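Researcher: Here's a chain I'd like modeled. Treat it as a single chain, no partners, no ligands.
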Amino acid sequence: MLAPLVLPFQITVASFAVLWCVGALTLRTPKRIAWLSVAAVFLLIPSCVGVMAVVDLQRYGRFDYARASDIPNDGYIELPVNATDITLYRNGAGHWAKFTIDIASLRSWIDERRSLRPDLNRHHDDENWLTKTTDPQRPVMHELNQQIFGDRFPETGWTYDPSMLQLQVSRSDRGGGYTVWHVPSTGDTFISAGYW
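Model: Modeled as a single isolated chain. Structure tokens:
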């Protein structure tokens, strides 16, 4: 969970080390070097916050890609290689994505992802891939699924479709992984991922 802080911390410490070395070479008196060291200690956290604000503008937010191969590989984003028309929202704790893919390719990709951690994904079966129909006797379930979908994708404008297949892939015993919603008739697929 501290991964988003690592890069800003590294940038700040490296910058401070360079500035301290330059300052120590130019100031040359122990008293001035001591003041420079104290200033560096007190400015470390505010500087990290400033650097993090600038870095986060580049790495978080909404991104659009034509193909999965266009997405920069950072080790966190996992999407099928056949995915197209990708809209990706990234934040420090995970990402949300909407893309288009056929059901056979999606199924193959999910089976591959689940096979990476069979100990966490052993209770999934072929019933998950059956097209669901809305039961008119259970409108509460439809409303609940719609609310869950809306909670998983806040501020995206994406809407729930009652024919969606909902699948789960576990990637960490700490709860990391993702939930996939797929509309078989259109190929629209949505992923809500939490980092592990």
